[in-house]
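Homework help thread (please don't just give me the answer)

Our assignment gives two proteins as sequence + structure token strings and asks us to describe the second one. The first is just a warm-up. Here they are:
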Amino acid sequence: MRQTKLLNFAFFIIAMQEKSYDAIDTVAFIDRETYIRDFRDVATFEDCCRACPNYGNRWGCPPFDHDTLQDLLPYNKVMLVGVKITPHDSKMPMEQVYDLMRPELERLNRRLLDLERENNGFALGFVGKCERCGNVPCARIDGKPCRHPDVVRPSLEAYGFNVSETSSKLLGIDMVWSHDKNVPRHLTLVCGLFYNGPDLQW
């Protein structure tokens, strides 16, 4: 009887921890040549990155010490994945935005890295607020190599891709922005995998 009560209590706790948002994944495929030609503008987006404090201070962020185009040319196809996150609380303060996105960021990165390994591809995921080293500053600040190169990947933006247009034109998700102190009506995460072969199963 005691075991049954404990199991019921555990189920109750799990039920109370339901997600505070809805998340929908959308996948699109495009050939690498078209994606680079129509959605990449390195100069423009590196200028945008310069305004960010992570610029030059995180290994997943520009500037890079090589021509990033060369990382993409071995592949003939791109799989793009967007997730639309809609919070249940329309008045959620912006201070909570990262906590809201974190489970989806972790889920997408895990799946993206699995597909990269399985298909010998090249993933562009999410760096931004990289937490792989916890509260320790990125090793790049001290001129040292990344401590976690197996899991840290640059973002599409870092490689010069227009993520807003990628999201709207290829994934059908219009990005929206907050105009007050609350999280916007939905958040959008976009990642990609450059690879060779037929369409993949997300």
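The one we have to describe:
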Amino acid sequence: MDFVEKSVQGISFLTSPHICALHAFTTRFGGVSQGIYASLNLGESRGDDPGAVRENYRRLKAALGIGKLCFTRQVHGNTVRYVTQADAREPYDPLPYEADGLVTDVPGLALICFTADCIPLLLHDPVKGVIAAVHAGWRGTVADIAGEGVRAMERIGSRPGDIRAAIGPGISACCFETGPQVPEAVTAVLGREGQAYIRDPGRGGEKYYVDLKGVNRALLIRAGVRPENIAVSGVCTVCQKETFWSHRATAGKRGVQGAVIALR
């Protein structure tokens, strides 16, 4: 099933029919930020006007009908942290932990992770009522943060076979050109299966194209998520840089989009 484009109170976002929990993959549209951050920038550390970022969050919360948010301070690792209401914060409040993924079973608590080419993963177990939001850059991907997200959900009662996953907009294989370091790391984590997600354009081993979405899907399956329960967005943030934030397409002069999920 394809992802669905929605607009609520001017906030534009995508959702996946695979996930029945409240969720959204935001776009660039619907905020008040100006210049290179126009308009729905959710990044606190990009140099944007803090007042504009706070207003962007106010609008996002109003559009989605959410209250308290738990944030990630992302370091391209594979830590997935269990959070409760005590971890909720407002933009620019101190964040005393580092984590590239969050998991909870607390109703009404929204989780958010941030991307601008990296791969966002939203996970939902509708049986036990558990959710996770995961940021998977290439380093986190090859460190199996997708599997860590599943295992974090298992620790609070989920069965992998019940988990629904949505792999959101991010850089696709068409634009993720890299040196040999990334393909070598993919092969290290997936073995020969990893070759399916690596394309060699014939440049003497200097450049490759890697499908990070495919790698994360394979790691979710290895962790026990059923293939039919995984939706993968075909959106490449580099190709659609007018709609989504892309670090590569803007040479780092950009804002941040969010992947949000909450139990009703």
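TA reply:
I won't write it for you, but here's a hint about the kind of observation we're looking for: The radius of gyration is 17 Å.
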